[in-house]
Specification:
This protein has 787 residues and is α+β, with helices and mostly antiparallel strands. It contains 24 helices and 24 strands. The strands form three sheets. Strands 1, 2, 3, 4, 5, 6, 7, 8, 9, 10, 11, 12, 13 and 14 form a 14-stranded mixed sheet that branches. Helix 2 (17-45) runs antiparallel to helix 20 (656-690) and helix 9 (283-311) runs parallel beside helix 20. It is found in: Cell membrane.
Length: 787
């Protein structure tokens, strides 16, 4: 039976090479695009699934109810309380990333990025295999455990365990002993590390920067990510009551801090409202990309149905003869479905090849490596094969259902009435394809408009002709560097701040409302040097800017801070919320990207926080200024490479997700266009052949070639109009939801849909023009002899 189905299917495809070719091209393109998108989706959804105890692994969060901010920081002292007073916790591991860490290799110091200060229980929480000492591996102060990758780099073809290495921590050389080597964390893990060192180094770093309190015992020094492993019979919610009791013991009544737990499974996608330094996924993007894959597949399925109904008339007699010989409707339906499935299976290797060829380009769009993860192999195979079979099944379902119900006598008498009904069905399916294409095109235009809006709208400071130089580990030299480059004639101003604008991180602090200590206002803090406001063109509307030497305890507020704190004339006054004097008020500017509203802001001046130097240069002089700046960098910081970005580059980086989404949707629109064009091209050819006599009669009766062409174009033009109108409501609905992610956004303009209509009309009409023109040129005598 299967052999018979296969023989029949191959025979049909051989007889209908055009049908087979168009469908193979359409299905393979759709599946290839979908496979690439699904590779990204599957990899994203598999984050943190490699840990066998993931359902029992949690991290501690703390919520500041006064300012409604949650982050993943916890005090170091909390670890001891969790170990002593929470018997349902098996292991607790506080972690903190170590900054300014490098390892000596030969005579050079190699920076290591992901250095984690922790204790030995970190390997019990995350079931990562460690070679070397098993118990208390990090207890000795000068212990270090390397990842396999870093160990191979530092000790090629050697056993690193037991060997010493020289590490530079906070610009001081320290001798560390390699106690073990751990397997690299899976690439789809949010928690990553290149090496682990004793937690004492993080305590020293924090205490050296915040000298007024001891980070080891202070409950308000919430700088550690604390991970824990619960017993299997407990969940994170079971600890809430014990947390509430602990909070009452250690915090005063006016301090509204609350601890909670977040399961590891929720860390990647459930942290959008949590201030965290770990990588985060975006479920909205997952839904968008999954919808794109589904729509591309749907277009290919519609394409198959359109062409199947077009060629089905030629199969009517075949069906009639089979039924006469005893074949039932169920058998006929099974045969036609199998043909569709066989076609989709033939397409699978082609689609996989195209997906593999397109993967490098997709990696640029998704801004990530689309790795084939060994742990996901079964999922990849299951999803790809299931999707292929599903599209074959769904595509052939309509045709199989329709043809299997045809009456034998009607078929053999050539009295099957299929023309108008099939024509309406095909028209509806073409309109559906065009609707999807129009949605893609108009969405692309709206997303790109928002991207351009974000790049070009005035944020309240210079967004052109500014260069950001990352001082990094050399921030102590920022003052000398700024003073040296300010002397260049083409440099208009230079100043430093803790971060570049727009800031990608935030530092919110609960300020007491003047005269009412029970009310707290969330205020963001920005540390700048004495020249930053001038360098960035931030407008002072009241009072004055910072002046070197006189403003160590001076503050500048933005307009929103003045309003939120209820201040009428703050300049020159001391206020309770800050230990100093307000010397000025600046006009509101976009501290963060356009995704966020402008927060209340307090700025203070210090040369100690100039980690990013903003250089404002004359327009068109970057090529001449940059070599001079680099030469000064080499004089002041000779041992460090200079990392820099122009404002244009930085803004594009901030809004790279929007740009990539615009490109992905436009590429999807291209695939939708290509697949729909294949179908429309093939359908037009079938229609022209089936209407050859009709066209001949029209020409005999006096119809001109131009009139025949226009009659075909008018039908397709009407379908384009209907498709464009039908695409407007879903596009507005979806794009309004997407634009709701921005506090500052563009409007959805009418011209978007006009351009979409023009694109759809050009595509549809040019596709049918060739065949309609050929049909209009046919000799009426030859047309009437046709068949």
């Amino acid at each position: 039976m299967i052999k018979n189905y296969l023989t029949t299917a191959l025979r049909f495809l051989k007889r209908n090479k055009l049908f087979a070719g168009i469908n193979i091209m359409g299905l393979s393109l759709a599946l290839a695009a979908s496979f690439v998108i699904l590779l990204y989706v599957i990899n994203e959804l598999s984050y943190n699934t490699s840990f066998k105890n993931r359902k029992q692994i949690y991290r501690v969060l703390h919520n500041n109810a006064d300012i409604k901010i949650t982050d993943d920081g916890a005090p170091y002292i909390l670890t001891k309380h969790l170990q002593d007073e929470f018997p349902q916790i098996k292991y607790v591991a506080p972690t903190h990333f170590v900054t300014e860490f490098s390892v000596k290799m030969n005579e050079d110091y190699i920076p290591v990025d992901r250095v984690v200060g922790a204790d030995s229980d970190i390997f019990n929480v995350f079931d990562i295999n460690v070679r070397g000492q098993q118990a208390n591996i990090l207890d000795e102060p000068n212990s270090i455990i390397l990842s396999k990758e870093l160990a191979q780099k530092l000790f090629p073809d050697q056993d690193p365990i037991g060997q010493n290495l020289v590490a530079q921590i906070d610009e001081k050389d320290e001798v560390l002993e390699v106690k073990g080597v751990f397997d690299n964390f899976p690439v789809n893990s949010t928690f990553q590390a290149d090496c682990f060192i004793n937690v004492k180094w993080t305590l020293q770093q924090i205490n050296s920067r915040i000298k007024e309190r001891d980070a080891e015992t202070d409950w308000r020094s919430m700088y550690w990510q604390t991970w824990l492993l619960l017993d299997k019979n407990n969940s994170g919610g079971s600890l809430d009551e014990q947390f509430r009791s602990l909070e009452k013991e250690v915090f005063s009544d006016d301090e509204k801090y609350e601890f909670s737990l977040q399961n590891l499974s929720d860390v990647y996608f459930g942290s959008q409202d949590i201030n965290s330094g770990l990588p985060q996924g975006n479920l909205k993007n997952i839904r968008i990309f999954s919808a794109i894959a589904l729509l591309v597949i749907l277009i290919a399925a519609l394409n198959y149905i359109i062409l199947s109904t077009a060629v089905s008339t030629g199969r009517s007699k075949e069906i009639g003869i089979r039924k006469t010989n005893g074949a039932g409707a169920k058998s006929i339906r099974r045969q036609l479905l199998n043909e569709s499935l066989i076609l989709s299976i033939l397409v699978l290797p082609v689609a996989l090849f195209l997906a593999w060829m397109g993967k490098p380009y997709a990696e640029d769009l998704f801004q990530t490596k689309l790795l084939i993860l060994r742990s996901n192999i079964v999922i990849y195979v299951s999803v790809y094969v299931s999707l292929t079979l599903l599209i074959g099944l769904v595509s052939g379902l309509y045709t199989a259902s329709y043809l299997s119900k045809l009456n034998v006598i009607s078929i053999l008498n050539n009295s099957v009435r299929t023309g108008k009904r099939k024509s309406r069905v095909r028209s509806a399916l073409i309109v559906a394809q065009l609707v999807i294409f129009c949605i893609f095109v108009s969405s692309t235009l709206i997303i790109y408009s928002q991207y351009k809006y974000a790049l070009e709208k005035d944020p309240g400071y210079y967004n052109k002709d500014v260069l950001f130089v990352d001082m990094g580990r050399s921030s102590q030299s920022s003052k000398a560097f700024i003073n040296s480059i300010k002397a260049f004639p083409d440099v208009l101003a230079a100043g430093g701040a803790i971060d570049a604008l727009p800031m990608t991180s935030f530092f919110a602090y609960p300020m007491e409302f003047p005269g009412d200590k029970s009310q707290k206002v969330p205020i963001e803090l920005l540390a700048v040097d004495y020249n930053f406001l001038e360098a960035m063109g931030i407008q002072v509307i009241k009072g004055r800017s910072f002046e070197l030497g006189d403003d160590e305890n001076a503050y500048i507020l933005n307009e929103n801070a003045v309003n939120e704190l209820g201040l009428s004339d703050p300049v020159g006054k001391k206020i309770d919320v800050v230990d100093g004097t307000v010397i000025g008020v600046v006009k509101n500017f976009n501290l963060h990207s356009f995704h966020s509203k402008i927060p209340p802001l307090i700025m203070f001046a210090s040369d100690d926080f100039a980690q990013q130097v903003a250089v404002h240069y004359k327009t068109g002089t970057l090529e001449s200024v940059l070599p001079l700046i680099k030469s000064e960098w080499q004089k002041i910081v000779p041992n460090e490479p200079m990392n820099y970005k122009t404002m244009d580059e930085f803004l594009k980086e901030v809004y790279t997700e929007e740009k990539n989404l615009s490109v992905i949707v436009s590429v999807s629109a291209f695939f939708a266009l290509l697949i729909a064009s294949f179908g429309l091209f093939g359908l037009t050819l079938f229609i022209m052949k089936s209407q050859t006599k009709e066209i001949g009669i029209k020409k005999v009766c006096g119809s001109s070639g131009q009139g025949i062409v226009l009659s075909f174009l008018s039908k397709n033009f009407i379908m384009v109009v209907i498709a464009t109108l039908l695409s407007v409501p879903p596009t507005i609905f979806v794009m309004n939801k997407w634009l709701s992610n921005f506090a500052f956004k563009t409007d959805i303009s009418w011209w978007v849909f006009v351009i979409t209509f023009v694109c759809a009309a050009i595509v549809a009409l040019s596709t049918v023009l060739f065949h309609s023109y050929r049909a209009s040129r046919i000799n009426p005598v030859e047309a009437l002899r046709y068949e």
